[in-house]
Specification:
8-stranded mixed β-sheet, Rossmann fold, 5-stranded parallel β-sheet, single chain, alpha/beta
């Protein structure tokens, strides 16, 4: 069994807290397994009787009657009517459809349209059941209707949201074992989607490519009522090949036009990026002025929730090692609770003619967690003096007390150079340094 100790700890901490536990994350990242296998095993070991754990799988046709929100509420309350404490897992909660309030339809259960306002949805059922004193409620969903950020917002401070990601490198390495160097190269290529980890290399490739076409794209097209997905597909390819590059909607629209020889407006680009973000496929890192201490500008960097998914979009053809490393570092910083931005700052320097010019400088990441702050540069290698100097250059211009770190894709031990900059290998950085 692949351990997900971080998330198990979160579930244990939230146990019996009076709020529903809403487990969100990209499809196929292990939400159902976390509940029905890992957490259930913990409850049993904690002396919870098996008959006090109720699991309802709404994607099973035998349970289709409970996709009606009011029928679902009646069913769960009936199962828990003896007032003993129950742990209720509802899987695929997005299968619950919305109905018009029966008080407005002579008691009939009428399927609601998107523009109806007086509706009863799965949100109402989840909040209602969680108010029952003897029910500790846990729900998961696995399509964009449930996973989108707007649904999470509906719960606001009325639920405990547990954000599940694909396997972190620590989780991945804890499962595969062996050489950490070999593990990081495999992780860069194929990522940490749990089912992919269990397959051979060729099977992983096909599995990850199929996830996009048959699962992610299908969800996004359906949820957002897109007539066709070709533009969405091409946009995903553009972002995949531009991982770690500063982008805005105008730049993406121009690239789209040069690739497909078709026009696409900036608003459409922004909408499509929003669809990917809502499905938790993409994250964005905003620019942060390291001297002005504020977020600035419209340019963003976009990172995939999983490098295997990113590489699948490029058919695993000649993946850029630097881009993959940067994507991994960003994801792992987020996983470990850091707030992460792209660090930028301006300096005034002299050109070769002695004229003063303004120069833009960039640090891959500015990461903060509590009182800890880090500047982080990520590189594949620093054996070349020119590469090392280029990566270090921004640090020499930043006269502050923030720890400056250079992460290298080599099995090197942590050291400090003559300038006080930390140099560390990627696996040591991921497994130990940022904890």
């Amino acid at each position: 069994m692949i351990k997900r100790d971080k998330y198990l700890t979160q579930l244990i901490s939230a146990k019996n807290n009076g709020f529903p536990k809403v487990i969100t994350g990209v499809r196929r990242c292990g939400k159902s397994f976390l509940l029905k296998e890992i957490y259930r095993e913990y409850l049993l070991s904690d002396n919870v009787p098996e008959n006090r754990i109720i699991i309802l799988e709404l994607d099973d046709d035998k349970n289709s009657n409970y996709r009606d929100p009011l029928e679902l509420g009646v069913y769960i309350r009936e199962k828990c009517k003896d007032k003993e404490n129950y742990y209720v897992f509802i899987d695929e909660i997005q299968k619950v459809y919305s109905i018009i309030n029966p008080n407005l339809t002579d008691g009939k259960h009428v399927l609601a349209n998107s523009d109806d306002t007086e509706v009863i949805s799965f949100v109402d059922v989840v909040l209602g059941l969680s108010r029952e004193k003897n029910i500790d409620l846990y729900v998961t969903g696995s399509n964009s209707k449930m996973l989108s950020s707007d649904i999470v917002t509906e719960f606001r401070d009325k639920a405990t949201n547990i954000k599940l990601s694909p396997l972190s490198f620590e989780e991945y390495y804890g499962y595969v074992g062996g050489s950490a160097t070999e593990a990081i190269y495999s992780y860069m290529q194929y990522g940490g989607m749990p089912l992919a980890v269990l397959k051979s290399d060729e099977e992983r490739k096909e599995y990850l490519k199929n996830l996009f076409t048959t699962t992610y794209f299908a969800d996004i097209v359906e949820r957002n009522q897109l007539k066709k997905g070709e533009a969405l597909d091409e946009l995903c390819n553009i972002i995949s090949s531009s991982t770690g590059t500063l982008l805005n909607s105008e730049k993406i629209a121009n690239t789209f036009e040069s690739v497909r020889h078709e026009n696409i407006d900036k608003q459409t680009v922004e909408n499509y990026i929003g669809y990917f973000k809502d499905a938790f496929l993409l994250r964005e890192a905003k620019r942060y002025d390291l001297k002005g201490r504020k977020e600035i500008g419209a340019l963003r960097k976009y990172y995939f929730i999983d490098t295997g998914l990113r590489n699948a979009r490029l058919n695993f053809a000649f993946p850029d090692e630097g881009q993959m490393l940067e994507n991994i570092v960003y994801n792992e910083l987020c996983y470990n609770g850091y707030s992460v931005n792209v660090g930028v700052f301006d300096t005034v320097e002299k050109d070769k003619n002695g004229k003063s010019i303004r120069k833009n400088n960039e640090v891959d990441f500015y990461a903060t967690k509590g009182l800890r702050s880090l500047y982080i540069q990520v590189t594949a290698d620093i054996s070349n003096a020119e590469t090392r100097e280029r990566e270090m250059r921004p640090y020499f211009k930043l006269n502050d007390q923030v720890q400056k770190v250079l992460v290298v894709n080599r099995p090197i031990k942590e050291s400090m150079d003559e300038n006080g900059f930390t140099i560390i290998g990627i696996t040591d950085f991921l497994i130990r340094y940022i904890k």
